């Protein structure tokens, strides 16, 4: 386990119980991810877990993997920035991250990204503040969210979408289905859709939280997928993990069961505690002769997807395109103080790693920008000499909900 106030990417998953079934939006608090190839997802997860011999976390494994997958530098930069330790769920954005698709009544497909913009002030911890919080409680996220809702201070997020016509994807100078890349808000502005309010705590935590299963494969008519390879991998992996964790019919548990009628030909299996859902007792196969039995509805089929080119497993190339967006983040988005804290956070995280891995990661930072490398190297030297008193902290205002900052 881990304390809530540790530096890590946070999940941001939503389950919409609609009149046409459940839609699960399984996202994070960052718009991108470390990798774009689902084939490497199990290896990535291993580097974030504990070493099989020592049962301790391994910075060596993390930076070794990241150096071998240099597209990860975009996400690592966000992780090591101020946003790496959100103060609680109410003070961070949520993102669908992946590219999905929507289509209209004319069968025209559009690529979309989902954003959930926090309506509370964005607020984060420094390493020092987080250390004090962890000393007080390891469950600060859960405590803050539960207590806020319980006291009537309901947090809100505005749902937005970015929209790209299907044909435009081929005209861009980057792959819009690459999970390590963002779409420009200038070229693809956010379009408000609605507001989400968290206004009720569960009455039974185990029933509604521990048993909850979120899967990108749960969608409703009108929402589809894309050539995003990480998304395609998650479509299989999440439901497979849920069957292992919760059982064959996890989708019938109260937290996961749709609120609308269900019609399918699923049959038997462990913990089958509900009647057939085919619409006719004799219709336990398909196709069949029974008019009242469940039938596929062609009106909800998505438009055909245009595919061209060769299908193969290509060796991933190290291209400058992987450094363009982290370079813009470093130079244009982060301010001077934010860059200074990024340098120090990165240097601290790298302190235990070997010289060989350090030099490989330094080479990645230099590809982003020479100032990035120089800043991290200086912070590492300052850490070694104990000369870090001049590094700026995160400003604290009257709206900053942080006990450790007081």
From TrEMBL:
UniProt domain Catalase core: residue ranges: 1-294
Matching InterPro entries: Catalase, Catalase_core, Catalase_haem_BS, Catalase_immune_responsive, Catalase_sf
UniProt keywords, alphabetically: Heme, Hydrogen peroxide, Iron, Metal-binding, Oxidoreductase, Peroxidase
One Gene Ontology cellular component: cytoplasm
GO molecular function: catalase activity; heme binding; metal ion binding
Record-listed E.C. numbers: 1.11.1.6
GO annotation, biological process: hydrogen peroxide catabolic process; response to hydrogen peroxide
Alphabetical list of Pfam families matching this protein: Catalase, Catalase-rel
Transcription regulation listed as a keyword: no
Superkingdom, natural source: Bacteria
PANTHER family: CATALASE (PTHR11465)
Protein name stated in the entry: catalase
Organism encoding this protein: Alloyangia mangrovi
């Amino acid at each position: 386990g881990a304390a809530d106030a540790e530096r890590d990417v946070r999940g941001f998953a939503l389950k919409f119980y609609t009149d046409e079934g459940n839609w699960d939006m399984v996202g994070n608090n960052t718009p991108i991810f470390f990798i774009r190839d689902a084939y490497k997802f199990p290896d990535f997860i291993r580097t974030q877990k504990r070493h099989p011999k020592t049962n301790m976390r391994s910075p060596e494994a993390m930076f070794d993997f990241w150096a071998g997958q240099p597209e990860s530098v975009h996400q690592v930069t966000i992780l090591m920035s101020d946003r790496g330790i959100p103060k609680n769920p109410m003070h961070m954005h949520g993102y669908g991250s992946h590219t999905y698709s929507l289509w209209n009544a004319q069968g025209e497909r559009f690529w979309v990204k989902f954003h959930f913009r926090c309506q509370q002030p964005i607020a984060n911890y420094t390493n020092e503040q987080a250390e004090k919080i962890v000393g007080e409680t390891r469950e600060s996220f859960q405590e803050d969210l539960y207590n806020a809702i319980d006291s009537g201070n309901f947090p809100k997020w505005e749902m937005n979408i970015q929209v790209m016509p299907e044909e435009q994807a081929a005209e861009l100078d980057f792959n819009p289905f690459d999970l390590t890349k963002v779409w420009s808000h200038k070229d693809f502005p956010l379009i408000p859709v609605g507001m989400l309010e968290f206004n009720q705590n569960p009455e039974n935590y185990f029933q509604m939280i521990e048993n909850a299963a979120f899967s990108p494969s749960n969608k409703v008519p009108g929402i589809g997928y894309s050539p995003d390879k990480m998304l395609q991998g998650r479509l299989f992996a999440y439901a497979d993990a849920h069957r292992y964790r919760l059982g064959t019919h996890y989708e019938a548990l109260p937290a996961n069961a749709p609120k609308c009628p269900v019609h399918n030909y699923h049959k038997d299996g462990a913990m089958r505690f509900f009647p057939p859902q085919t619409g006719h007792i004799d219709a336990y196969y398909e196709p069949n002769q029974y008019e009242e039995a469940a039938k596929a509805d062609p009106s909800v089929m998505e438009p055909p997807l245009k595919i061209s080119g060769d299908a193969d497993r290509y060796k991933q190339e190290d291209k400058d395109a992987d450094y363009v967006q982290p370079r813009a983040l470093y130079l244009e988005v982060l301010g001077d103080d934010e860059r200074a804290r990024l340098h120090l956070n990165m240097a601290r995280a790298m302190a235990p790693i070997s010289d060989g891995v350090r030099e490989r990661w330094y080479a990645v930072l230099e590809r982003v920008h020479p100032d990035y490398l120089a800043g991290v190297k200086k912070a590492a030297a300052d850490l070694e000499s104990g000369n870090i008193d001049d590094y700026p902290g995160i400003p604290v205002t009257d709206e900053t909900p942080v006990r450790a900052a007081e």
